[in-house]
Specification:
globular, four-stranded parallel sheet, 7 helices, alpha/beta
Length: 174
Amino acid sequence: MKVLTATQMREADRLTTERYGISSLQLMENAGAAIADFLRGKFTGLEQRKIVVLCGKGNNGGDGLVVARLLKQSGCSPKVILFSNPGSVEGDAGVNLKHWQKGLGELRVVTSSAEWEPVRAELDSADLILDAPLGTGLRGPVEGLLGSVIADVNAARTKPGQKTGPGARPPELS
């Protein structure tokens, strides 16, 4: 499998749109559908699992919103946490945020560390955490709120003595 750099991925997306006439919105839909299909095929009983989708304001967040929408349509109940003011989510990600906001499911908006504190407990009880706050547009180290979120997600994934049995997070989700 060939792994692309962020620059190469952006160029691949641009060329796909330019050469084949596939819109960037359709590319986002395709990416989200592929992830949702993978999750439904990989994990049995996905409809009963607690799914948390972490989204930013960019295209990676838009991909996460597509996954959440498609999982919701297939009987799951994902919770979406948006790390941005909804009004600043634009472009294709904004389109998918509007789809999600049309009554599909829960949306928690977190724009500060104070708002994150009561929400971060969601990670400890989640069976699946979908990480989509940052994508290929990331430049430099992640600090502040999103730095804390990443540290908390990593801590939730590696808790010693995690529960086992029905409803537990399978090791392959870590």
